[in-house]
Design brief:
With about 400 residues, the protein is an alpha/beta fold.
């Protein structure tokens, strides 16, 4: 068959360790035989980020704004051990955090459900999509160690120079720590609109939760902005669509989520979304079975896998030992980006390819061929564990038949 032609490039952000190995295999086995792939390539591997003083991350985000669609491989966010291992100039920031801040987007994460993988929560019959605000809170914090006898204050200086002060804590009896976090109305408003629009697009209820009973200014402000935007811009649309916007406290939301059957969008502040997305992914079966897309207010999309770089498997791979690494979330990052590129460029054949790429992947698992993590969890009777590359070969063969 003739290769599917693309009009506009994707922004391709390569990554680290085992996911970098998988990235190359997915392109070679699943995409390049069928698509005349056009990408603008950026190497976000830790070595090159260090070489460019992380400028490559900024450049990739600028390119994403230009082209509208990006696909990103998992990357290392360095800690002290990584500083030594990679001989880094400094402890570079999370590439995800940098890109999210520059795009001012909302991260939507949803589980990939397949036959044989039963969620740990028996009532969950449909996917739960976590919408994570991707700006501010502790990810843009300021923090200090405080010696005993000190007093910590928060000061806001108005444009005319007047100051408003409040005491955070008097550390007269003990040393301690202090942290300042912030958010901005424009980002919260973008978050609210992204969540409510995504609910309309996917025909799902939207839940939002904070701790406004304790945080009567910070969290309550999130609640007020969501409520105002919903009433002014979305209430009639939601009613016409037969879906609901629902607000509750975060602890009540957790209890409701556990008792629910799924099938809705759960909007969370930045830290809540970071934690709850991993909880939901694990409860559905695997972090490697979780899609993730960053959506900006101006319609820019960045797709990635929700998991990390699979360091343990990478060290085995370097030793020449066999690996059985789950590539599903990375496959779905590519398919999501290709589908969106096809939608934006009005290329139905590219959209169809992306859909069949996902179908071939799911069919492979439901036919009993899977990587080690799924083999342990799957309740299918006739199943076989295969290696990293072998799994992708089986998917590629199914994809060729479907096409």
């Amino acid at each position: 068959m003739a290769k599917i032609q693309m009009k506009t490039p994707l922004v391709e952000m390569d990554g680290d360790e085992m996911t970098r190995v998988i990235w190359k295999l997915i392109k070679e086995k699943l995409i390049l035989p069928f698509v005349d792939l056009k990408t603008e390539y950026y190497d976000l591997g830790l070595e090159y980020r260090n070489e460019t003083n992380d400028q490559v991350t900024i450049d990739s985000a600028i390119a994403t704004k230009k082209y509208g669609v990006a696909v990103k491989c998992a990357t290392i966010t360095p800690n002290a051990a990584r500083m030594e291992e990679y001989n880094l100039k400094e402890m570079w920031k999370s590439p995800n955090a940098t890109i999210r801040a520059m795009l001012d987007g909302t991260v939507f994460r949803a589980p990939i459900m397949v036959k044989g993988l039963v969620p740990y929560i028996p009532s969950w019959k449909k996917p739960i999509t976590i919408a994570r605000h991707a700006y501010g809170d502790i990810y843009k914090n300021a923090e200090l160690r405080v010696p005993q006898g000190s007093r910590a204050e928060m000061v806001v200086t108005a444009p005319d120079g007047t100051e408003t002060r409040t005491t955070v804590f008097d550390f007269k009896d003990s040393a301690g720590i202090v942290q300042g976090i912030h958010n901005v109305d424009s980002s919260i408003e973008s978050f609210a609109r992204a969540c409510l629009s995504y609910g309309l697009d996917t025909h799902q209820d939207v839940w939002f939760a904070t701790k406004d009973t304790i945080s009567k200014t910070y969290d309550h402000h999130f609640k007020d902005i969501f409520a105002e935007i919903y009433e002014k811009e979305y209430a009639d649309k939601f009613k016409a669509a037969g879906i609901e916007y629902f607000y509750t406290l975060i602890d009540d939301a957790v209890a409701r989520v556990i008792r629910s059957e799924g099938g809705y969008i759960w909007a969370c502040k930045n830290y809540d979304g970071d934690v709850m997305s991993d909880m939901v992914a694990t409860a559905y079966g695997s972090l490697a079975m979780m899609t993730s897309v960053l959506v900006s207010p101006d319609g820019v999309y960045e797709y990635e896998a929700a998991h990390g770089t699979v360091q343990r498997h990478y060290y085995k791979y370097l030793k020449g030992e066999p690996t059985s690494t789950n590539s599903v979330a990375t496959i779905f990052a590519w398919s999501g980006a290709l589908r969106k590129r096809g939608e934006l460029d009005k290329l139905p054949e590219l959209v169809r390819f992306a859909n069949l790429m996902e179908k071939a992947t799911i069919d492979t698992i439901e036919d009993g061929v899977m990587t080690g993590d799924l083999y342990v969890s799957s309740q299918l009777e006739n199943k076989v564990k295969v290696g990293t590359a072998e799994f992708l070969t089986v998917v590629a063969n199914k994809l060729a038949v479907l096409l």
